[in-house]
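Lesson 9: reading folded outputs for more than one chain in a single document. The general rule is that every protein is listed as its sequence immediately followed by its structure tokens, and records are never interleaved. Here is the first one.
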Amino acid sequence: MAYQAFYRAYRPQSFSEMTGQTHVKQTLQNALLYGKTTHAYLFSGPRGTGKTSAAKIFTKALNCERAPVSEPCNECPSCISISEGSNTDVIEFDAASNSRVEEMRDIIERVRFSPANSRFKVYIIDEVHMLSNSAFNALLKTLEEPPEHAVFILATTEPHKLPLTIISRCQRFDFKRHAPVDIVKRMIEVLEDAGIPYNEQALKIIAQAAAGGMRDALSLLDQVVSFSGDEMQEEDALLVTGSISQDTFYHIAGALVDKDIAQALSLLEKLVQDGKDPVRLVEDFVTFFRDLLLIKTAPGLEAMLELASAEPHFVELADRLEASALYDWISILTKTQQEMRFSNHTKIYMETALLQMVQAAPAVHAAAPQPELEAKISALESMVHELQQQLKNGAAAQVAAPAAEPQKRARPKSQSRFSVPVGRIQEVLKHATKDDINAVKTNWASVLGNLQRSHAALLNDAEPVAASANAFVLKFKYDIHCQMASDNQTFAAAFNQLLQQYTGKSYDPVFVPDENWLKIREDFIKTNGLKQQTDESEESESNDDNPFGAGAAAEEDPFIAEAERLFGKDFVEVHDD
């Protein structure tokens, strides 16, 4: 007899031989045992997870001569013929190569005929998502009201491509990916039955490469057995699957911990030259650092390790790493993996990821304090102690002399990085009028209410302080808000448009921080002829432009008079210290 591949020779023939999928097996077995089977089933899930095998086992149990049973006997003529594929009442239909409506109509026309030798006529339609819309429409009515002897089992890897009208008429079972531990266990059973020696670490590599598919795992196992000859080696599995060894992972991780980027990039370059795919490398690195995190946080779960092992040098590496650093590295690699999907330069992304990992937060535990550092810390502690004593002595002196007038603390002036337009502000002050500042302030609330919320937030602590015929000065409490308003062109355009809409005039805003405004205003008042203005106010008591009269102008402080002229008496408050 010709050689059969492992995945064909060891296809499960009963539910007990199936690996995993407990939720599927138990439901189907109970339905068989208690006679609660239905007319249509949908098996969906990734490739190689047992969908077609489960369909055939279920078909054998339905038509077994010992029914109702939860397991097919695999001994009666019906079970044997179904296993051999010679039973005329079990029709396997490949929708990938027979997707036209004509093939589906041919099936539908034969559905009404009773089975020849079995209790049920079973239709197993594989890759059902490949059917055309016309074929689905032709199948729909029959699937809804089939004859009592007909059972449909639909299998697909892409259930989202099926019409909802088809899905709603089936009992759906979702098959899950196999865990690496289950795959290794099944491969050991196959190799022991075949009498082939094995290396368990090599089987773990194969299980990792299979990505949850049992058929893929058995196919890779077949290749590794053929390649290795008499004895399976770990290196054989690495070469066949395209994976990398534990030692390579260890050396690259060690280079990252030591911040030796040259060594890490050299090892990566060697892997790429050996034909390793950078996309696959990123995925493997994520798994490796996950293993290190598992070793560090849950030492008792060695069975869950996939690429690393609980050997002493891996435990030592895990101890050198902080958990937070492993989280950061996994996050960087995951983001890199997503970005690689849209680029042809995957190697560059991998190199960039290694650089980011080296430059991330410190990966190793903090070293013990050095003697010099301890001396500096002691000196600082002594200085702090002396300062505390001085503060206590100063407080005592203040209590002993309550009559002493406390000095006001000068508010420290922050260094502003905003470039203040002093010239423009002075121009506004030279031509400032009370009517213009009143026009701006009267409509201020309306303008804020119609701005976007993000724009209005910039003006929460802002205030118009002076205005001329075509511009006004807007004072900000905080430098950062002033800078943001000045840089935001969208805000300036929207603000000018609303202000013109409400005032009827176009005013260009001139931004200035609070501290700078106080200095500019004081310098302007000192340098722009206050004495002359005060004398003129005394000579013309009836002047309408002076709302306060000559006597008041003569007696008032010249700074106050100039402020009231520029901004209006209603907006000037005088506080005596």
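And here is the second record, again sequence then tokens.
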Amino acid sequence: MSRLLGFTKDRRWLWASGIGLALFLFIQVFPVTGGLFSSNNHPVLPRAAAENKALELAADKFLIKPNQVQEVYVTHLSDSETIGYLSKYDLLQDYDKQWSGEVPADVYRVDLHLRGDAGILELSLQMETGDLVAWRHDSGSAPADALPEQDQADEYASRALSYAAFWGIDAADWEWSGDIDDNGGVKFNSRKAALGEAHVWLKVSVPAEYSSTSSTFPHWAGHSVTYGTEIPQAFTAYMEKQQQRAGWLSIFGFIVPQVIMFILAIVYAGTRGKHTSFLRGIFLASVFFVLYVAITINMIPGFRSQTMDAGADSGDRLNMAFLIIQIVFLAGTAIFTYFCAVAGDGLWKSMGRSLWPRWKEPGYGEAVLKSMKQGYVLAFILLGAQSVILLVLQQTLGAFASSDPTQSTYNMTLPWILPLLAFCAGISEELQSRFFGIGLFRSWFVGLARRILGREPSPRTAIVLTTAAMLPPSILWALGHVGYAIYPFYTRIIELVIMGVLFGWFMLRFGLMAVIFAHIILDAVLMGIQLLFDGLPGDAWAGLFSFVMPALVGIAIWWLYRVIHGRQAQPAQ
């Protein structure tokens, strides 16, 4: 087995891999230790089914015919603050039992853009059943209904609760809070027990002419039945502060340094060009760009969730602008990745190391196949290490995860292509942060030591300097991930600096291709698990395929090389 996987001399790698896989399964997959990874395997409606359900509800409950609907947008929205609060205080299971059916924190919001000047009807659907849990009609102007007098407030609130009951709300679950806002919205509090300090509220905007005894269909234009969760203000302020700090770190700790690294990559591609070829990296950078553009187009509903959360409407004009900006950014990232490939190869070869074989070299196909096998072994070690790191940070820092609908499979047109993102991350991040980043800082550190000592540093000193060279690019890489929905924001910095050093060590030990495969496999496994448990029909098979996809790619490259090169496929003896 060790020879088959490319570890012919040391079985300890296989033992470490097995232990890493076991740790990953027990900490992040199996509900044993309560790790940061959580999953919900309830069947969820596909986006198309949610759209059809919304059109049925519009016809049955709002008397809106299909030909009155101009456009339909389906978006997964999530109350990230509520999910974060429940996650931090271990209340998610209680929430699932008590609230998720009638007032879920995650919904499909289906926006029906009505023809003419009829506005937008926003329907919030329970994601598993398609039941209507909330709605709002945006007519472009607030309703002009007069507010009730003080002595009529109780009767007004009673009519509002009756109005909500018409739309499927269980009136017995709610009591009037005594609050009527300036727009006539009547606020109710849930009679169910609070979860920690989290309380659910219902707000109803009721037409002035509505009567519970009338047999006529109630007026709905310009009105709404919505709900939300009130969580402690201190926790809301905490999350906002965390997000602000993460945003500043992303700009000044990642984006600005990345621009500097881009310039340095161009410079070193020129100065170290004699040690390499300017054809290096063209194929990988092109694969990155093509795949990421396809993935970005696939995630347009995710962009929509972000713009809707900011208060914009669900139209695609703003989302198309985001898409164009993102494609331009991806083109720049692909060019950066290319120069990192050239500069990194030149740097390492100028330092006497060849970490990346070329296609034209004998045995390239066998090297890819071996790297793929090693990649699985290393990926399982990394998954185990990541799981332990996150568990320790959860226990020591109180780390917790929230939700991010922009990355949700429910906001993807074709969820099953999610694992392709693993190839984009593995290619770009390993070429940028490890291959070029470590090579750049190692050349600086060793060069500085050479000047100070007046000679070549000793092997032991070189090892220390190489290890030190892993830290700056690992920190930059980590700062590029602080925007993820894990709190406190420095949780990911600690985790990814450690992971970055491990990736760097593996690259120096097994070569660039092995660590690219390891990164791809790690992400493909995590994304496969996400697909397995997202509840969408067909995604479980896509999740299983995600696990073997890197192996199939490695085998395909090996086979293609043998077909093209024939007898030259084997390395010279």
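What the second record shows: The chain has two domains: 47-231, 236-567.
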